[in-house]
């Protein structure tokens, strides 16, 4: 039966099968192409190595040892080649940058708060100590007031209130008598004028109390309670909120103890300077203590004359900057920091231009001792020295590796590509190199997805030279 199928039908069947296969191959392109490409590249590298091996007959073992290195798992751990430092390479954006000296500084008007005495008095209690962390609305000091003018103004205010109340009752009595004709209306009118004068005096006394620091609510409470203000409670202010916290705190009003747990959006304040002690007499405006908010700081960088144009370009492009802090392991880099502003004047002494970068801070330690005092330690501290990396040029789709991933031997640069527990030394072309990164030319020596050692390239180079029997150059791999 098969022999009776017309040739034209066979041709159509072959065409349909071929089309189906092509469609299947195209649909699964994303699944099989990358493994197939990597396999082809590995095969070509092996073929090149075998060709080189065949071209050096009689010394094949030495040549093979020079091109690759087999490491045990212990050796890989000794070199620090953990999974973190054995990563597939990928194309990324590289920013060529310049380094500027910098220092961590406070935010003017935000980082430090001065707490002063609003009135004259004597300190009767100190609730916080130097170095302690407090939250907004925490009680700091209690002061017994000795301000004579305030005491006298309060006394006159209460006296005027009492006189107005007496006049009001007298006017009510005279109104009834005037209606019956027992008393003339002139007497009632004189009483009303007297009350109006007292009300005008009361308004002026009320404004005087407000000038002394009392709020409207406190003046109303003074009139309703009839008690003079004797004690003052000074609490920690809130940086971002300015309402009830600005008024004087009278004795008996609600406040928070120092161990109070504030909402999540409140930031702790550290007492840096404590200027008073119990029993000390203070006057209005005298500094009691200073509080510091270290949650948001500035990095002040210094740009020299030749760097000003590069800094201006970074500002125009809106590029973020990086901060490099010295660390026990070498350095710690903080990326993607926002450039806040650049000064408009050059320092006449140092001939440098200041630039300021936002630095969000973090709490490293937060503890409460047996006395209930809270102490915190911040990650970044005012006065820390560092380097700022300001980008001046941006390159897209580049192979970027750490400087520890490449090693120099004569005119050649090498990286070490992982293949199981074997590391093959691969020559590469270095386009650019700075203190931390190396830009590798995307010329086919490496492909995205290849796994290379991101560190210890110098030690691997020394091991290869050692196993090849050559003398070890202690300066190999270092560029001076």
CATH superfamily of the largest domain: Efflux pump adaptor protein, beta barrel domain
Helix/sheet category: alpha+beta
Shape, per Cα inertia axes:
elongated
Count the domains.
4
CATH architecture of the largest domain: Beta Barrel
- CATH class category label of the largest domain: Mainly Beta
Fraction in helix: 25-40%
- Total E-strand runs: 26
Task: Describe the main β-sheet briefly.
Answer: 9 strands, antiparallel
Mean pLDDT: 80
Rg measurement, Å: 40 Å
Low-confidence stretches: 55-66, 252-264
- CATH domain topology of the largest domain: Elongation Factor Tu (Ef-tu), domain 3
Describe this structure in words.
- The chain has 480 residues and is an alpha+beta fold.
- It has four domains: 60-95 and 395-467, conserved putative lor/sdh protein from methanococcus maripaludis s2 fold (Beta Barrel), CATH 2.40.420.20; 97-108 and 295-394, Elongation Factor Tu (Ef-tu), domain 3; 112-144 and 230-293, OB fold (Dihydrolipoamide Acetyltransferase, E2P) (Beta Barrel), CATH 2.40.50.100; 148-211.
- It is 32% helix and 33% strand.
- The chain contains nine helices and 26 strands.
- The protein has helices at 7-27, 29-55, 60-67, 73-78, 148-180, 185-211, 216-225, 308-317, 457-467; strands at 68-70, 86-88, 91-105, 112-116, 121-126, 133-134, 139-145, 231-235, 249-250, 269-274, 281-282, 287-292, 296-303, 321-327, 330-337, 339-346, 353-360, 363-368, 374-378, 385-402, 407-409, 412-419, 422-428, 430-433, 437-440, 451-453.
- Strands 3, 13, 14, 15, 16, 17, 20, 24 and 25 form a nine-stranded antiparallel sheet that branches. The protein has a five-stranded antiparallel sheet with strand order 9-8-7-5-11, with no helix packed on it. The chain has a four-stranded antiparallel sheet with strand order 1-23-22-21.
- β16 and β17 (353-360) form a beta hairpin.
- α2 runs antiparallel to α3 and α5 packs antiparallel against α6.
- The longest helix is centred in the middle third of the chain and has 33 residues, at 148-180.
- The radius of gyration is 40 Å and the shape is elongated.
- Mean pLDDT is 80; it is low at 55-66 and 252-264.
């Amino acid at each position: 039966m098969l022999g009776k199928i017309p040739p034209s039908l066979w041709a159509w069947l072959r065409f349909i099968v071929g089309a189906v296969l092509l469609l299947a191959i195209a649909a699964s392109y994303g699944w099989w192409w990358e493994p197939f490409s990597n396999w082809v590249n590995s095969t070509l590298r092996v073929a090149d190595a075998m060709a080189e091996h065949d071209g050096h007959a009689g010394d094949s073992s030495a040549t093979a040892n020079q091109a690759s290195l087999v490491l045990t798992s212990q050796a890989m751990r000794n070199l620090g080649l953990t999974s973190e430092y054995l990563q597939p390479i990928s194309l990324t954006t590289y920013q060529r940058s310049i380094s500027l000296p910098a220092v961590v500084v406070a935010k003017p008007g935000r980082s430090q708060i001065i707490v002063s005495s609003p009135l004259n008095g004597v300190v009767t209690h100190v609730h916080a100590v130097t170095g302690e962390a407090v939250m907004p609305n925490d009680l700091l000091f209690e002061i017994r007031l000795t301000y004579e003018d305030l005491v006298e103004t309060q006394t006159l205010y209460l006296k005027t209130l009492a006189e107005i109340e007496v006049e009001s009752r007298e006017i009510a009595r005279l109104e009834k008598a005037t209606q019956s004709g027992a008393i003339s209306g002139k007497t009632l009118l004189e009483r009303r004028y007297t009350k109006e004068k007292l009300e005008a005096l009361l308004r002026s006394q009320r404004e005087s109390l407000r000038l002394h620091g009392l709020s409207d609510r406190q003046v109303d409470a003074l009139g309703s309670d009839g008690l003079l203000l004797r004690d003052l409670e000074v609490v920690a202010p809130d940086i971002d909120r300015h309402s009830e916290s600005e008024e004087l705190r009278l004795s008996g009003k609600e406040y928070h103890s120092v161990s109070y747990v504030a909402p999540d959006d409140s930031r702790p304040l550290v007492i840096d300077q404590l200027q008073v002690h119990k029993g000390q007499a203070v006057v209005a405006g005298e500094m009691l203590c200073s509080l510091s908010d270290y949650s948001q700081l500035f990095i002040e960088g210094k740009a020299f004359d030749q760097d000003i144009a590069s800094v201006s370009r970074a500002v125009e492009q809106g590029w973020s900057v990086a901060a490099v802090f010295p660390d026990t392991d070498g350095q710690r880099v903080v990326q993607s920091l926002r450039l806040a502003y650049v000064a408009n004047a050059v320092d006449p002494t140092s001939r440098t231009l200041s630039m300021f970068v936002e630095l969000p801070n973090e709490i490293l330690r937060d503890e409460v001792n047996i006395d209930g005092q809270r102490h915190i330690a911040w990650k970044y501290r005012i006065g820390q020295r560092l380097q700022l990396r300001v980008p001046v040029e941006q390159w897209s789709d580049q192979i970027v590796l750490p400087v520890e991933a490449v090693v120099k031997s004569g005119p050649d640069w090498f990286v070490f590509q992982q293949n199981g527990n074997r590391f093959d030394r691969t020559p590469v072309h270095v386009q650019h190199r700075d203190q931390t990164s190396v830009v590798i030319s995307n010329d086919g020596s490496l492909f995205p997805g290849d796994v290379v050692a991101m560190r210890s390239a110098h030690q691997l180079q020394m091991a290869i030279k050692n196993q090849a029997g050559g003398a070890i150059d202690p300066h190999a791999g270092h560029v001076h």
